[in-house]
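subagent[fold] <- orchestrator: predict structure for attached chain, return tokens only, no commentary.
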Amino acid sequence: PNSATSSSWEYRSNWSPSASAKRFNRLLLPLASVFAGLIDLAIGFVILVLTMIYFGVSVGWSLLYAPLFLIHGVILSVSVGTLLSALNVRFRDVKFALPFALQVWMFASPIFYPFDILSPTVQKVFALNPLTGVLLGFRSALFGSGFDWPQIATSILGTLVIVCISLFVFSRMEDDFSDMI
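subagent[fold] -> orchestrator:
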């Protein structure tokens, strides 16, 4: 979600001529950036599965859950990207703060470390991060470990909140985009 989110917020700088068209659905612009990143993900996923097979890592039936977590990650990326693209049009300083915010978000997500090494108190705080459930679910699907369904449910709920907020903010600001660009 990091590269997808960081590219989808650049709504103003990359798409400004198209955004002023009256009959153009402006929500497609952040979506296009996220879906372009799926090609890289698909290639990387194929290489990962082939590497797992080559090194004898067992691929179980839990791998069938991976597309669900992929969809969850895409929805989260689109939502955050949509929110940030709308804020970037209105507040020009968003583009300067975003790389730092994404880096903090990356370290606040169990990407480079296992979630289990955190204390139970810290795990509860990290549970509020919607990306945590995506990563834990995807990791469990790949390696066949048990799913942490309460954490995944919390992540889905957090993602739905972000979807609602981003659509509300985007729709409220959308009419003024062509004037601000």
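orchestrator: received. Logging for downstream: The longest helix spans residues 28-54. The chain has a mean pLDDT of 83.
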